[in-house]
């Protein structure tokens, strides 16, 4: 028997999956050949999902932590304890004394029923800001009014494809496939990153830029385009505001200053500029360039380059960062009228918020689809603060965060529930997933858990089954998007070329080089006073994991430039401690010649048995407007250790 579902991972591709079921057990997962994006194959992590579902390490019964040891309890005991805790909090404070943390460990739409539950409770302390893409979203809101992508198939209309800070082979495999097919048709590819990633193998031009300096590279190309009269005057004069200020900034820049900051020679910058004027050029921006304190500014300057070169609103063009085509559609799972006590914390500053908030204090934390101890900055502080409170974690596995929990509730996997999947990172194919197998052990879905809690609290809450919620969401989306779910997926936005009419969602209805909130983006770096012997810590996404969800065995390694390592007395394979005033983490040194000096590269998501994570070394800095965590604007000392 074949069942249809969707990949639950926080990923650009949002793949359609076919599950082969025999005697009630899923025995194989593969990509749906009928889905235009999936094309019948999955990434390595997707194929490993079945092992996760049937893993012997799964939590299959509720657990209660007593003196740092976990004991099995019944669902009735667990839910009764949670309900009593909520009732006690409501007697003494109000519902905002409960902090709700929803991560990106599961991308099904029905998980948002938890938010509706807390709204009905009177509102909780909810998250704002972002850990991964908020700066870029904010930037494109300033420039375009929203962040929208061209159809994946529009890439075949391009002359050049630019992958800017997007290691597609590891993080967006189907885009890599599209680029590969486009190359067969004669399209050319530029790859820009802070070191030669595996995606460089597809590049006609590979360009390595200093971390946090992409805005200088963008402005260098802008300067050359303007100096040579190759800017798109029609777009600039008819459909934009603020260009003259950008022009003035570019004119004042010297190529020496640009080269010094971004580490790219003038002739290479000129080559990049000449690529952009060979329009149409499609640009795909990754989430790396905006993981700095100047992240918003950086993405805006890349948008500027795309606009000035005439690549906005044309076939084969675009500044593709995210695809927020549902942004203005009301959520089924929100009730702001009931949430009278809601307040917000910045996700990048969770530890600080828990430490400082007193009015009313946070007494309970409910965590679902997330692992904040591993993923948030200053993870040691997050762990210490969670330990002081009544913490409920809904998860499939023991994680760094569960070690600070009071109660762990076993979560159902994506194969054990019905759901709707709404992608918003690259393409617009919304999917409806079937329940593939019966729940393993005593695991429950978010809908089942919330229904039982609502009953215990006598809330006037809409008790619905998963199937009923799926139909409710489908009806809502069909009306809002004018679509029809006649099979298990449907194309929603049907927007091949955003901004083709040159009408933008900004206040001026034009592309805004100058925005009233943030002015004009300027070339900048995030440099602060770096102490002697400190190196920048750059954390990157891995091919083997999705944030802290491990799919393959890996070891914590740090990639060093050979000369930096020699200066610090570090050899290949040495164990080294990365540390600063925030915390420390031990990794294995890997030396490479093709990594520039001054920084080290570590894959994100590591957590060891001592509940130490690489984020122990990361201060809770943020990009402009507190839009997201500035993971890569952190610096560490390095010390060789003996084990």
From TrEMBL:
Q: Fetch the PANTHER family from UniProt.
A: OXIDOREDUCTASE YYAE-RELATED, TRIMETHYLAMINE-N-OXIDE REDUCTASE
- The organism is Caldicellulosiruptor obsidiansis (strain ATCC BAA-2073 / JCM 16842 / OB47)
E.C. number: 1.7.99.4
Does the entry feature the keyword Iron-sulfur, yes or no?
yes
Query: Where is the signal peptide, in residue numbers?
Result: none
- Give UniProt keywords alphabetically: Iron, Iron-sulfur, Metal-binding, Oxidoreductase
Q: Which family does it belong to?
A: Belongs to the prokaryotic molybdopterin-containing oxidoreductase family.
Provide the protein name. Nitrate reductase
Q: What GO MF annotations does this protein's record show?
A: iron-sulfur cluster binding; metal ion binding; molybdopterin cofactor binding; oxidoreductase activity
Domain 4Fe-4S Mo/W bis-MGD-type: from-to ranges: 1-57
In which domain of life is the source organism classified?
Answer: Bacteria
Instruction: Note the InterPro entries from the entry.
Output: Asp_de-COase-like_dom_sf (IPR009010), MoPterin_dinucl-bd_dom (IPR006657), Mopterin_OxRdtase (IPR006656), Mopterin_OxRdtase_4Fe-4S_dom (IPR006963), Prok_Mopterin_Oxidored (IPR050612)
